[in-house]
Fold this protein.
Amino acid sequence: MKGLFKSKPKTPVDIVRQTRDLLIFADSNPDTREKTKREEKFATLSKLLRELKQILYGNSEAEPVSEACAQLTQEFFKDNTFRLLIVCLPKLNLEARKDATQIVANLQRQQVQSRLIACDYLEANIDLMDILVSGYEDPDMALHYGAMLRECIRHQSVARYVLESEHMKKFFDYIQLPNFDIAADAAATFKELLTRHKSTVAEFLSKNYDWFFAEYNSKLLESPNYITRRQAIKLLGDILLDRSNSAVMTRYASSRDNLRILMNLLRESSKSIQIEAFHVFKLFAANQNKPADIIGILVENRSKLLRLFAEFKPDKEDEQFEADKAQVVREIAGLEPREN
């Protein structure tokens, strides 16, 4: 007889709905006098989040089932469970936060009837990006919200919102936060924003050239922090050498202030900064329409530059680097001063 009264297994939809009810409870800040009840509810919520993660990712015994994933995804974006999860994240314990972060990440890739419904939801709830970006200001939340943010900006429209928002300016400070892990996470998000969606990035850089590169030069390339400088010069090379940013590259390589910064980076004691700086410096040398003041600086510093390049070698043999260096040396050696 006992077997007749077995409870029906919960469906993905049931689990999401139960999760939503508990998140609403968590969000409503119930009276602390009900401490035991509250702890029980939070323990159940943690258990449900683990179950949701298991449906989406599978486990050691079973792969995820696409139909279950689709049902879960559809329900998650109905009635704002997704928003509640992000808003309530600070109230969860560390393990539940980790599970929630992985759930949010996975939901960005789940298709329902061949559509990424996460993208539609985020476009309609774009203010959630404000919460995620500002998360870098909370040491307890920064790495969770940062990981969620990187997954959300896989969607081009969401990345465009962050790029065009006032938040972009904050990244120059987040990258230099004293907490190394948070600064590194912010740098990873910053790189993703500036390299993933080529056409959106090119448009952003063209429209925001003046303030963006003023900040980039002064706060990152001239930062007193070695790691910040190293990451910044590497990313600058990635941005400027990307074909979709050719107009921005030409503009950057026509500025004497930019050239001055690059020449200082070439003189760094760090080999890796020198090499990355060279990849950007060569754009100034190779520019066939160099402004007169750029030619003037290169001619004035010709002997120093040629001496530097004579001893300039990467740690591993690199034919392409040697070919680029030879071309730069030829360009600089053959320069004639020109009147402004």
Remarks:
- The first strand starts at residue 111 and ends at 112.
- The first helix runs from residue 12 to 27.
